[in-house]
Amino acid sequence: MNSSSTRTCRTTVPGRRVRAGLVVVALVGAYATGATGAATAAPAPERGTAIARVAEPLSEGLVAAMRRDLGLTEAQAVARLAAEAEATAVEGRAKRAAGAAYGGSWFDAGSGRLTVAIAEGEGGKAAASVRGAGAEVRLVRHSERRLNGVKAALDRLDAPSGVGSWHVDPEANKVVVSVVAGERADNDVRAFLGKAAAAGPVEVREVAEAPRTFAAGTVGGDPYYTGNVRCSIGFSVHGGFVTAGHCGRAGQQVRGWDNSYIGDFQGSSFPGDDYAWVNVGSGWWTVPVVLGWGTVPDQLVRGSNEAPVGASVCRSGSTTRWHCGRVLAKNETVNYSQGAVHQMTKTSVCAQGGDSGGSFISGDQAQGVTSGGWGNCSSGGETWYQPVNEILNRYGLRLHTA
């Protein structure tokens, strides 16, 4: 997590000053035209209203990143954001309709619809209600409650370093355990997998590398520093910002890109969780935007509705800037070398050192803060984020929205 590197890059500092001005202009423009966003949950929209919502001006940078990373045309990106917004609205209603038979859900990019798994034998009547809520239905063997019980049993085990993570996969209707390539024959890994299989329905998949956090030493162009570690700001909250817990401990001072004092870590948790929040003062202020780092326009944040599995998601970080991908899994336990972290969301987005704590956003909805992953933005990889709503609830914070 720490680094002895003292290399600095100051060439981006002038750009940071110009960008701050652009943020203010973007916000003034939004308010002048009456663009507003709900900071609290609102009643679920009727089918089709999500398309009107996405008709609001979209960040060119967001669409450009989706085109680059997901291979979409501009029209496809806009259409997908509309479909995902509708799926997000449908998911809560469909889950309530499924009741105890609920087996999880995911967004299907091909059909543009949300699919809900219903446990056979429990959901004959529920299936009709779920369809009525606007979702597709797939009958499965196990309910989400059953699979969550299996995952909870794995959470109580000591995992060896060759085991990367584990989560409930609603589409596979199993608990998926990720094992680092070449480590499956390791005695400790085999023992862990044996106990996992005894707990219930488990599927083993290989990953290229073990997960790691994305903090880094001082290398310049950073949103903030703690000691010799740099990380990225996640989302503005009233009174400060949220970020990753492994970036600093409660009481540590935080310095900004210009090395001036911002505030202190007010709360931090890692491992177990990977979240923290920093108060902002000393001439610093908060704005409801995700930064484009001078490469793409900034993105306004209008809420924190949770996107379903399969939805597109984009990440902004101080090292690799904007990159996009898909939500692959939720409530995954990630086995870092420092210890396991629970309730993480896995994505196909790449990241690198220094991106830790940065923003994950779907459309204009905040999703979470970057924790860690494997791979990089040259060869690809996977990255996990800590869901933002969990952080807000833990510390009693309120997201700063446009």
UniProtKB/TrEMBL annotation:
It comes from the Bacteria. CDD domains: alphaLP-like. InterPro entries: Pept_S1_alpha_lytic, Pept_S1A_streptogrisin, Peptidase_S1_PA, Peptidase_S1_PA_chymotrypsin, Streptogrisin_prodomain, Trypsin_dom. Residues 1-41 form the signal peptide. Keywords: Disulfide bond, Hydrolase, Protease, Serine protease, Signal, Zymogen. It holds the Pfam family Pro_Al_protease. Residues 220-392 form the Peptidase S1 domain. Residues 142-198 form the Peptidase S1A alpha-lytic prodomain domain. Belongs to the peptidase S1 family. This is S1 family peptidase. It comes from Streptomyces lichenis.
